[in-house]
Amino acid sequence: MSFEPVLLRNVGRPEARKVEGYRENGGYRGLEKALEMEPDAVIELVKDSGLRGRGGAGFPAGLKWSFIPKAVDKPKYLVCNADESEPGTFKDRVLMEEDPQQLIEGCAICCYAVGASACYIYIRGEYVEPADILEEAIRDAYEAGILGDNVMGKGFKLDMYVHRGAGAYICGEETGLLESLEGKRGQPRIKPPFPAVVGAFGCPTVINNVETLCNVPHILERGALWFKSIGTDERNTGPKLYCVSGHVENPGVYEFPIGVTMTQLIEACGGMWRGRQLKAFIPGGASAAILPADKADVPLDFDQLAKAGSMLGSAAVIVMDDETDLVRSVYRLAKFFNHESCGQCTPCREGTNWAELVMKKIVSGHGKPGDEELILRICRNMGGTTLCALADAAVGPLRSLVQNFPDEVAGWLDGGGPATEPRRYFAEEVTA
Amino acid sequence: MPIVTIDGREVDVEVGTNLIEAAKQVGVQIPHYCYHPRLSVVGQCRMCLVKIDGPPKLQTACTTQIMKDGMVVHVDIPEVQEAQQGVMEFLLINHPLDCPICDQAGECGLQDYSFKHGQAFSRFVFEEKRTYPGRERIPLGPSVMLNMNRCIQCTRCIRFTEEISGTGELGFFQRGARTEIGVFPGKELDNPLSANVVDICPVGALTSSEFRFAERVWYLDKKPSICTGCDAGCNVTVEHKRGAIRRYKPRVNPEVNDYWLCDYGRQTFRRYSEFERLGTPAVRGAAGELRATNWEAALDRVHQGLARASEGADLAFLGSGFLTTEEAFLIARLADAADSEHRSVWSEEGPARFIPNLHGGVHGTETTPNRRGAELAGLLGTSGINAEDLMRGDGASRCDFLLITDGDPGSPLHDAEVIGRLRQVRFLVVLGWASTPLTEVADVVLPIATHAEKDGTFVNSQRRLQRFRAAFPAPAGVRSGVEALVDLLGRLGPEWQGLTTAQVFDRMAATVPAFAGMTFDSLPAHGTLLDTSGAVASGDSTEPEGAHP
């Protein structure tokens, strides 16, 4: 399956980090076009394109922008969520490193559409290099008159800042991010009020993922019809980056029309690693339910995956071969969520901790029949009862392990062990 | 106003009322830990999840404000009960089972809700409980002890220091299951309101350094009363065991102290054990020694002293700000009988105290609770020898008879110099509850009840009249001031014989304009603001009123 890259078209063109190089490849035509339009028309266009948020929740981007109140006597902000921390996700990093001007252009269009005069790019602290590249690109954009008091000579004022996070998964949750941006302890807020009304510093705020904003210039340039022509249906449109990791020959970021299947992705990645068999895959980052191999032909889009009992999330596809022990894998994920729970809500604070302990008990050989029900019970008490979605995220892999792979768990109970003991490959195979 | 239906019962509430408060109005208790009516709403404990018709998921009642008609809420349904059970289970898995040695036992939110919403078995068997080694006994400040193992991370204490005391000493540290509360580096939980965090802590994580291990709470008798630490007039609950007060707790009065009580006020009951208690009346004998006698003989001696008024002698009456309004009224009637203008009330300027409430707050500026009430009742002489003359001038030497109400430990009346001046009077009658340097030099000592042992009213710095009743009876041999004074007045005329405090108040209401139309038994629970525009009360005009400092 071949696809002319849209979002990744400047990969391998280091000159595109500069405004000049970016323009050579058609850059900033979208912004130019937007500035000729009424702001509301820009919002309508993005709405019409069917672009859905690429951060995980898949909320329609244009609709989100339209929630920003028009008649308020407060500054409005765009916050770009570049706190890419969902395990398995590394697409935003590529976008920021390889094509920072594309992100700046997307941000500028969004700011123009909603009437924001400042944009904060909240980037995770560990992304030192992308942050440096972005800052350099922003400097260049200021010099080229793309940013500043008079954007492209059209009298629109826009300032852009890179804000580095300090390393917490929860700061990728949009209201946790806002708290952190304001200099507070990063923990999610009660909603409502939603950020569109009370966001950063108490002002109306749009929060969009990096990839979402990177799609925007292309929608402006090529139109909603073109955008809608890509993808599975009118609810799942546009190009999508898939972060493939795990047991494939060539892991990496791949761009496809949204709705490619697992089978197609594996093929694009050069097949399964060392010709092994697919056992399971996580389609949308650590928060998504793990799917068995027989779901490999489900289109990886928002709605089809939801129907299959999982989610597209950040499209972090983790491929697991037939020698992977899912119980140990899920234990590792449970550990992650316990480590990253902010601790405000009782079910998440205590539930993620308990879940890790139960998984630890099982993988240390002390599991007992009945532990499956215990896990499901913890999941039920955690899911849907908290302020933000972190507890629901923690439930994803846990519940799917018990429900989709009952034999894997059963094998560990009563002094058992992994269903398949991994072969010792590194020493002999690598040298061979 | 919007109408909401809670478990089938309709209630009409103010716009913006949250569901917990609305449910209270129809008698439905929605369990909660992090919610407190005076603190910001954070929706963290998730105990108040309820089912609202419409949204698919359960919603927290604390964060749900009722804005318009038609909301239908279900609390007593299996779905909600299961959620409550789930949260309780989460809270309990890591909570130590140390109730037998925990001060909170008996008034613990976890105990109460476990009983009501919990389950009788544990699925948390193999796993080790989370503990915070070395954080079991951390003094956060002079009044508050932290046991982190018991904390359920509700953040009420943190929000109290941020929003009520405004001092912000406390914060959350760490993250997730390792989250703990603590004071910021270099800080100490030391502010005038710090002990309130103990009251609002729903569990035994924060306990009172003073009360710790003093008593199991189920042995305490709890009676409503008023703090005598200053003239703010904070409403308290006196908690005592057979007449020995163990602690004061704030009693809610939104007009005065709201939910709070200051650290100083909480400790003022200790004055009752600092001095030796007077148990029996005493009179000075022929050889100059004080000897115990009975009430009849003691009051006869006072009566003899009073009777000399008719011989043209000067009689003075010095009340105190610790008197109830009724006692002060009776002393004023004694002064009337003696035809004396030498009447006054002593009180002292004290450290400025402040308790915030929804209207700003209430200030305390004096060391006694009722100077205003005593003056309104008739102890403010317009001319004549007053407190200042007696205590710091030569007033006593110009008197033949002085009846004085003693103060508490630390009272200015106990200065050697003041006593020297007062002793210049020919005949000194002292009413008090404790054996003090002043009672040592009196001619007649009348042992009267402490405020916890009598009924009465106080008028606070807002000019709010508040009633209180005896929390427990006075010891044998001790009478309330009203009993003693009524007995004394009865010797002068029949109309005072056998009156109770309530009857004295009602008589006062008939003669003192500020109390016109009131009766003791019908005073409102939150007190009543006096209209003192035409009345005589000194020194009030310059006092700060209401504003937050």
| Low-confidence blocks of residues of chain B | 535-549
The total of beta strands of chain A comes to 12
CATH superfamily of the largest domain in chain A, called what?
Answer: NADH-ubiquinone oxidoreductase 51kDa subunit
Q: How many domains comprise the coordinates of chain A?
A: 3
Strand residue percentage of chain B: 15-25%
Query: What Rg of chain B is obtained from the alpha carbons, in whole angstroms?
Result: 27 Å
**Rg over CA atoms of chain A:** 22 Å
Straight-line N-to-C gap of chain A: 33 Å
User: What is the third-level CATH name, the topology of the largest domain in chain A?
Assistant: Rossmann fold
Find the CATH topology of the largest domain in chain B: Rossmann fold
Q: Distance between termini of chain B?
A: 35 Å
Strand order of the largest sheet of chain B: 15-14-22-21-20-16-17
Structural class of the helices, strands and pairings of chain A?
alpha/beta
- The CATH C-level class name of the largest domain in chain B: Alpha Beta
Strand order of the largest sheet of chain A: 3-4-2-1-5
Task: Quickly give the CATH architecture of the largest domain in chain A.
Answer: 3-Layer(aba) Sandwich
Keywords:
heterodimer, A: 432 residues, alpha/beta, Rossmann fold, Ubiquitin-like (UB roll), de novo design (two linked rop proteins), 3 domains, 5-stranded mixed sheet, B: 549 residues, 7-stranded mixed sheet, 15 helices, elongated, disordered C terminus
What does this structure look like?
Chain A has 432 residues and is an alpha/beta fold. Chain A has three domains: 14-228, 3-Layer(aba) Sandwich (Rossmann fold); 237-321, Ubiquitin-like (UB roll) (Roll); 326-412, de novo design (two linked rop proteins) (Up-down Bundle), CATH 1.20.1440.230. In chain A, 43% of the residues lie in helices and 14% in strands. Chain A is built from 17 helices and twelve strands. A five-stranded mixed β-sheet of chain A has the order 3-4-2-1-5. A five-stranded mixed β-sheet of chain A has the order 9-8-12-10-11, with helices on both faces. Chain A has a two-stranded antiparallel ribbon with strand order 6-7. In chain A, a hairpin with a 2-residue loop joins β6 (231-233) and β7 (236-237). Chain A is globular, with a radius of gyration of 22 Å. The model of chain A has no long low-confidence stretch (mean pLDDT 94). Chain B folds into three domains: 3-91, Roll (Ubiquitin-like (UB roll)); 101-108 and 127-273, Alpha-Beta Plaits (2-Layer Sandwich), CATH 3.30.70.20; 282-529, 3-Layer(aba) Sandwich (Rossmann fold). Helix content of chain B is 23%, strand content 20%. Chain B has helices at 19-25, 78-93, 109-117, 156-163, 196-200, 263-266, 271-274, 295-307, 325-337, 371-379, 387-392, 416-422, 437-440, 481-490, 501-511, and strands at residues 3-6, 9-12, 49-52, 59-60, 71-74, 138-139, 144-146, 170-173, 180-183, 206-208, 221-226, 235-241, 244-250, 282-284, 290-292, 315-320, 343-346, 349-357, 360-366, 401-405, 427-432, 444-447, 456-459, 464-468, 528-529. In chain B, strands 15-14-22-21-20-16-17 form a seven-stranded mixed β-sheet. A five-stranded mixed β-sheet of chain B has the order 2-1-5-3-4, sandwiched between helices. In chain B, a hairpin with a 4-residue loop joins β23 and β24. In chain B, α2 crosses α3, α9 (325-337) runs parallel beside α10 (371-379) and α9 crosses α15 (501-511). The longest helix of chain B is centred in the N-terminal third of the chain and has 16 residues, at 78-93. Chain B starts with a strand and ends in a 20-residue tail after the last strand. Classes of the chains: A alpha/beta (432), B alpha+beta (549). The interface between A and B is medium-sized, with 32 and 36 residues.
